[in-house]
Design brief:
The complex is a heterodimer of chains A (about 500) and B (about 625). With about 500 residues, chain A is an all-alpha fold. Chain A has two domains: about 1-190 and about 340-485, no CATH class; about 210-335, no CATH class. Chain A contains 20 helices and four strands. In chain A, helix 5 (about 85-100) packs antiparallel against helix 6. Chain A is globular. Chain B has two domains: about 50-65 and about 160-240, Penicillin-binding protein 2a (Domain 2), CATH 3.90.1310.10; about 245-300 and about 310-610, 3-Layer(aba) Sandwich (Beta-lactamase). Classes of the chains: A mainly alpha (about 500), B alpha+beta (about 625).
């Protein structure tokens, strides 16, 4: 009976495992190791599998990953749920211990050296945090609207962030911010995401276009004002669901804009501040009068959003002007306003050259000059995407993006088919982490994001990061494979 | 647990977000990879180093095969900041024997982009230029202890003699204009600046080769592209054999020390310049190496202008050395015959004008007039010719005939010597006088002084020497040149071309005889050299800068001449006092190989006429 049951569960495991995800995983790790071989190829003709090469080591890490993954699949799903907190607790202790124990490697204290092997606990803390978060959300009567529950959720996320920052690995710590997406999916108001996104956009736009003038004010401020106007109208239509207010305000904006354009052709130029303050001010007064007819709270929030946006704009400009010139310079380099190709901008410029030189079909395997000759630093780790871009060209680099997109969408689909909050939350944690890594890593290589040193999952060289992602993914596969055990709700 | 379908919709927000990001990134890839080719070019210029292989520059020998100029390696100490690791600064400074604060100051200068605009931590930066041989030897052995520091080899010119700087010239780094004019050059290349280094640049420089190398980010060379299949070998520059006799050149410079002026010696049979002395001269080694800029500025600012090659650039009134040309023209035009004599009562006196002369018999014919350098004879002859309307129709027409004879003798235009900066001198034409004196308002009388080489007439010492060679050759010359042959190429075609004057050969014999008489019993008796039939003509050129210039031109032997000389000493008085002895000593040195008139020699070497020059003392 016991034996038969095991057999049955093994059979059902093979049947119920998500083969799409597993195959994507295998394709990516092999493609990753091949890219690492290309990236670290030194014109010495060493074999791809030679242990002296990064690729040889990576193949070993992949082999070990498969062992780890297979083992994870054999563990009963309930173990993960039952031991979620202990696993999280052990990981937190390990993170804390690492700060003390780890040697200084390029300023960071994040590696535990065990003889010939170095491990980075921050990579393993990801799945532990995901498990703990999933466990918390699956407790009876849990609700993010409950203040205590919300604080608990935030605490689970913030503790590893603090510990990893103390290890001086800010990039890895930022990954945990991606769990905001999970909180959002589980009921946190979307306004947090929305406001955060707007602040980033205002900040970047205001500074990036600060050098030129439009309508007598900086082009950055001009664009921010226009964005605010568009967002006010969008919020009235979508958020407040007030067709009348949205229509009237947008008509007002359009008419006023036409008047300004017309006056310009007649030779009269109106100052930007005068125009925007008048028009946005008038629309706010109109809304404050008109809101009594509609949903008071939502219109009020729209007005508060508009006012805070404009205050934020002026705060950014003021605060920036108070910075030291070299600090301004650093921010400008990150935003791509100023170029500093010999200093801070070197990596990103070389990485853009590498990718751009790939063209449609790339230079061919092992033929990349830019990555091979070490123009791109960290090419086998954080900048591995360059090698793909240079040697495999547009089809290769776009292909990798599509692979990731399919994987992430697949994980979201897996999440939504879970019958338990535990499974769903865990799966969203996995999706969020992949989303964050993909956005930041590829964005950095393409020169669209600031340089934050985090790896591209499955592609970047390194045992710890590969095993960390393997843990994340295979625990998900195990949880997903067992979803039917629970039947329908 | 119930599913919240309101919240489930948020999967579209999250999924939509990542779809949007991927779409943006793919758009960015299109932008980088498909629509912009500059990245491809950047990558190539990153990875492939077209390493130029510099050919060795041609060497320069004198006419007897003595090596004058050769190449020496020079070493710069450079660093690539990114590769520099902590090192023993004390050991480093001791090895190079520089004080530590100075070294630290230098490092600070290199890394300060305000002072060093090209600074990059990834490229070579020069720390010390032109290491001395000792410093190079010491640092070379220890270099492995100082990662990030390298030695870069360069070529500089070395000189075996301190003479002939004006002929040899020097080399310098190319400037923006050179690069624009000749796409052979790249920044940092060297090019000839003066002398034959400049005029024979295209032969001396050879042909650059190219090696295509693969270079990594820190500038480390990883190997040859396609194993060197597309490399091009460098071709060494051609060596030059100068026509200059370096011993004669040195001797001339010694004779001319503390004097301003020039000495030119030409082999009349070939046009080869045997010596081309410009005084004051300078040591060509001054314009080599790291002191070049400083020394160059010093030479430019020197009040005696040593960089100004007086032998070919200075246009002087030729004075009485001009008279043989007049005799030749008068004879050719049939104005005089050998018996025609003009009166000279201590000068040419006509219509209230007097051109002074010195005591000798009167009337006087051509040969004695040359012997005694009679001014009046040539004034009268000139007047008779230019005013002869019956033959020429008008004064301007007659003058044009005169002018064309002068031009055919090598005056008024550049002779085309193979050195940069030659002056053309000046021979006026009718138009010039029409403008200056008014059309129809001038006659021979108005311009009479040009008949004795004064007035508007200007000639370079080279032109005077070349005139002398023309007379020695009885009516032809080869354009004077300082390069006897470009090894492996030969001589330039233009120097094989015989230039005939418009004067018949037979008239030259009379002039030669007159010049021979001047040496035997006339104005240049000091020029007499036992064993050689020397012919000569003195000149004492009035000028607006002070005392008269002392000039001599002569050749020897009278038949089958081997050397024609012009010595021109500024503000040194009579032709006989400096011009004749210096010119004569040059002949003796060249013809006999040694000088026996040691008293005359040391008087010349030790005399100083610079004090009489127009240049004010500080």
């Amino acid at each position: 009976m016991e034996l038969r049951s095991t057999n049955e569960s093994n059979n059902s495991l093979l049947k119920s495992i998500d083969w799409v995800t597993l195959i994507l995983y295998l394709v990516m790790v092999v493609a990753g190791a091949v890219s690492i071989y290309a990236a670290s190829y030194d014109f010495d003709g060493a074999s791809m599998f030679a242990f002296s090469e990064f690729s040889g080591k990576q193949f070993l890490w992949i082999g070990l990953s498969l062992v780890i993954g297979f083992s994870l699949l054999l563990i009963d799903r309930r173990i993960y749920e039952a031991y979620a907190y202990p696993i999280y607790g052990v990981m937190v202790l390990l993170l804390a211990a690492t700060i003390v124990v780890a040697p200084n490697i390029k300023g960071s204290h994040s590696w535990i050296v065990l003889g010939p092997v170095s491990l980075q606990p921050a990579e393993f803390a990801k799945f532990a945090t995901a498990l703990a978060l999933a466990k918390l959300f699956s407790t009876y009567n849990f609700s993010l609207k409950n203040r205590n529950d919300f604080i608990k959720a935030v605490a689970i996320i913030v503790v590893p962030i603090i510990l990893i920052i103390l290890q001086n690995e800010t990039g890895s710590a930022l990954v945990y911010l991606s769990f905001i997406l999970v909180l959002y999916r589980e009921g946190m108001t979307g306004f947090v995401l929305y406001a955060g996104l707007c602040m980033v956009v205002y900040f970047v736009v205001a500074l990036k276009f600060s050098a030129t003038l439009t309508m007598g004010i900086s082009t950055g401020a001009f664009i921010v004002f226009v964005i605010v106007m568009v967002l006010i109208v969008a919020m009235l239509f979508i958020y407040c669901r007030s067709f009348i207010l949205g229509r009237n305000v947008s008509l007002g904006y359009i008419v006023s804009a036409l008047i300004v354009v017309g006056l310009h052709y007649l030779g009269v130029d109106i100052n930007g501040y005068v125009y925007f303050f008048t028009v946005i001010g008038a629309s706010i007064i109109y809304l404050l009068i008109g809101m009594f007819h509609d949903d008071l709270k939502k219109v009020l929030i729209t007005v508060i959003f508009a006012v805070s946006s404009i205050i934020f704009l002026f705060t950014v400009n003021f605060a920036f002007s108070k910075l030291q010139p070299h600090q301004q310079m650093r921010i400008k380099v990150t935003l791509g306003i100023e170029q500093d190709l010999r200093g801070a901008g070197y990596n990103v410029n070389q990485s853009k050259i590498a990718i751009g030189s790939g063209g449609m079909w790339g230079k061919g395997f092992l033929n990349g000059t830019q990555t091979k000759l070490k123009y791109v630093p960290e090419q086998h780790t954080d900048f591995i995407y360059c090698t793909i871009g240079e040697e495999e060209g547009f089809w290769g680099s776009a292909g990798v993006l599509i692979l990731f997109l399919v994987l992430i969408l697949r994980v979201i689909a897996i999440a939504e088919r879970q019958h338990t909050a535990f499974g769903r939350v865990y799966a969203y944690c996995v999706a969020s982490i992949f989303i964050f890594h993909l956005c930041i890593n590829v964005g950095m290589v393409l020169g669209l994001c600031p340089v934050i040193g985090i790896p591209l999952p499955f592609f970047s060289y390194g045992g710890s990061s590969l095993w960390g992602f393997t843990f994340l993914l295979f625990i998900l596969l195990r949880i997903d494979a067992a979803r039917k055990d629970y039947g329908a709700w | 647990m119930r599913k919240d379908y309101n919240l489930e919709k948020r999967k579209y927000v999250i999924g939509g977000f990542i779809v949007l990001v991927v779409a943006i990134y793919i758009f960015r890839l299109v932008q980088l990879q498909l629509s912009d080719s500059t990245y491809k070019e950047n990558a190539d210029s990153n990875a492939f180093v077209n390493k130029t292989i510099y050919p060795s520059r041609g060497l320069i020998y004198d006419r007897n095969g003595k090596l004058l100029v050769y190449n020496q390696p020079a070493y710069d100490l450079v660093m690539i900041h990114k590769e520099v690791q902590p090192f023993d600064t004390t050991d480093f400074c001791n090895t190079l024997q520089i004080p530590r604060p100075e070294f630290e100051k230098r490092l600070a200068e290199i890394t300060d982009r305000n002072k060093n605009h090209n600074y990059s931590p990834y490229t070579e930066q020069i720390v010390i230029q032109h290491l001395s041989a000792q410093d190079y030897g010491r640092i070379q052995e220890k270099l492995y202890r100082f990662p990030g520091f390298y030695i870069v080899k360069k070529i500089i010119r070395e000189y075996n003699y301190t003479a002939a700087a004006n002929v040899l010239g020097d080399i310098r780094e190319v400037n923006a204009k050179d690069i624009e004019n000749d796409n052979y050059y790249n920044p940092g290349d060297l090019t000839g600046d003066l002398g034959v280094e400049k005029s024979y640049e295209k032969f001396l420089r050879g042909k650059k080769g190219q090696e295509i190398l693969i270079r990594d980010a820190v500038g480390k060379i990883k190997g040859k592209y396609k194993d060197g299949a597309e490399d091009v070998a460098a071709e060494a520059g051609s060596d030059l054999k100068l026509s200059i006799d370096i011993d004669l050149q040195e001797y001339g410079e010694r004779l001319m020390q503390n004097k301003i002026g020039a000495v030119v010696a030409i082999d009349p049979s070939t046009g080869e310049v045997l010596a081309l002395v410009s005084s004051p001269s300078y040591d060509p080694a001054l314009l080599v190496g790291k002191e070049r800029g400083k020394n160059y500025a010093k030479l430019v600012n020197n009040k005696y202008k040593p960089l100004f090659d007086r032998s070919i650039m200075a246009a002087y009134p030729p004075g009485s050395t001009f008279k043989p040309t007049q005799g030749l023209i008068f004879r050719q035009e049939g104005i005089v015959d050998l018996t025609t004599a003009f009166p000279c009562h201590r000068g040419y006196i006509n219509a209230g004008l007097r051109v002074g002369c010195h005591g000798h018999g009167s009337p006087i014919a051509l040969k004695p007039a040359l012997q005694t350098s009679c001014n009046a004879y040539f004034c009268w002859g000139f007047k008779r010719m230019v005013d002869m309307k019956s033959k020429y129709g008008s004064v301007p027409k007659a003058f044009e005939v005169w002018k064309n004879h002068m031009v055919s003798q090598g005056y008024g235009y550049k002779l085309g010597i193979d050195l940069p900066g030659e002056s053309r001198g000046f021979i006026p034409n009718s138009k010039y006088y029409n403008k200056m004196l008014g059309e129809g308002k001038w006659t021979a009388q108005s311009i009479i002084s040009i008949s004795i080489g004064q007035g508007e007439i200007l000639a370079t010492p080279l032109q005077i020497a070349n005139l002398c060679a023309t007379i020695a050759n009885r009516g032809y010359y080869y354009a004077p040149h300082v390069v006897k042959s470009i090894i492996g190429v030969g001589i330039l075609k233009k120097f094989k071309e015989k230039h005939r004057t418009t004067i018949d050969t037979r008239y030259y014999d009379d002039i030669v005889e007159g010049m021979r008489m001047a040496v035997l019993g006339g104005t240049c008796r000091t020029a007499n050299l036992p064993g050689w039939e020397v012919c000569g003509k003195t000149g004492t050129a009035q000028n607006p800068h002070g005392r008269d210039h002392s000039v001599f031109m002569g050749f020897a032997p009278m038949n089958n001449p081997k050397i024609a000389v012009c010595a021109f000493v500024e503000n040194a008085g009579f032709g006989a006092t400096y011009g004749v002895p210096i010119g004569s000593l040059m002949m003796e040195k060249y013809l006999n190989g040694k000088v026996s008139r040691t008293a005359l020699e040391s008087r010349m070497i030790n005399s100083n006429t610079i004090a009489y020059s127009g240049v004010k003392k500080h």
